[in-house]
Amino acid sequence: MATKVFVPRVESLASSGIDQIPTEYVRPESERDHLGDALEAEKKSVNGPQIPIIDIKMFDSEDEAVRKQCVEEVRSAAVNWGVMHIVGHGIPAELIDRLREAGKRFFDLPLEEKEKYANDQSSGMIQGYGSKLANNASGQLEWEDYFFHLMFPQNQTNLSIWPRYPPDYTEVTKEFAKELRVVMTKMFNLLSLGLGLPAEKLEAEAGGMENILLQMKINYYPKCPQPSLAVGVEAHTDVSHLSFILHNNVPGLQVFYDGKWVTAKCVPDSIVVHVGDSLEILTNGLYKSVLHRGLVNKEKVRISWAVFAEPDKEKVLLRPLPELVSDDAPPKYEPRTFAQHVRQKLFKKEQEAAAK
User: Fold this and answer.
1) Is residue 154 within 8 Å of 173, Cβ to Cβ?
2) Global pTM?
C-alpha cells in the first residue's frame, strides 16, 4: 500500500514570518534573471506589447462585417499570441464576484479545515486541496497551493470532494460552469470560422458536449518574501484545448511572446483565454499553445481560477484535421489520445529533469 506523501503548504510557510524562502522553492540560476515581483513587472509592462483584448459580443451583431471582424481578431490572437482577454462574454459580473468570494472564503479557512479535502497525488487522487510535488522539469517546488476538481459535465462530477464551506460553493460553481460552457462553444465557433471551417467543426472534433470536460483549479499564491527567486507556476503550456482564467485583480500571469515575457494587465470584466496543446494539434499548429508562467509578489495574495477545457482521456483522437493538412502543410503531429499526450509530455519533462 502506497504511503501518502506529505507536502508542505506554501500558505503555512508564508505566514510563519520567514524572510528567506526554503531552497526547494529557489529557481535555477538560468531562470532568475527573468524573475521579479509581479506588481513591479506589471508597472514596467505598460509601454510594451499587450495581450489582445477582444469584445466577443461583436459576434452577436446583425452586421456581417462586425461579425467577421470579431472572427478575425480572435484568429489573429490565436495565431500570433495563443492568448487573449475576452470581454462581452455574457457571464454576469455578479456571478463572477460570487465565484471569487466562494473561492476566497475556502482559502480563508484554517489550514486544518482545508486539509480535510487534501488530495493524494502519490496514489493518483489529484482532485482536492493540494500543493505541487517536485515532479516538474526543474525538480523545484512552486509558490502556490490549490484546489482542483472536475466541474462539468455535472453528471460526471464528484460533489463529495467539493468544499462544503462556504455553503454556496457548489451552487455558485455549478452555475458558473453552465455559463462558461456557453462561452466555450462561442470561442470554438469563432476559432473554427477563423480557419475557414464550419462554425461547429472544431468543437465537434474536440469532443462535443459529452466529451469535453471542464476542470477547475483555484490557485492560491501567498505573499512571497523573495519573489525574484520563486515562481507561482513555472513556465509551461496547457494540455487542454482552451483554458479560461479569472483572478482577484492581482497581476502575476506572464506569457512568452516574440522572445520575451509579457505581463498580463488586469482588464476589468475580462476572462483570459489560452490556446492549449490539444487545440494546437487539431489545428496542425496554426493556433499556438501559449507558453506562460505565474509570478508572485511581496505585498498581495493572488488567487486565480483556471478552467481547462479538456477532451476525454480515451474517447477523442487528437490529430491534425484533414482540412488543414496539404502537401504544403503536412501533419506536424502524430495521432494520439489525450491520455497518450499527457504521458508523452510527462515523460519528456522527466527526461529534461534527468539531463540537468
Assistant:
1) no
2) 0.95
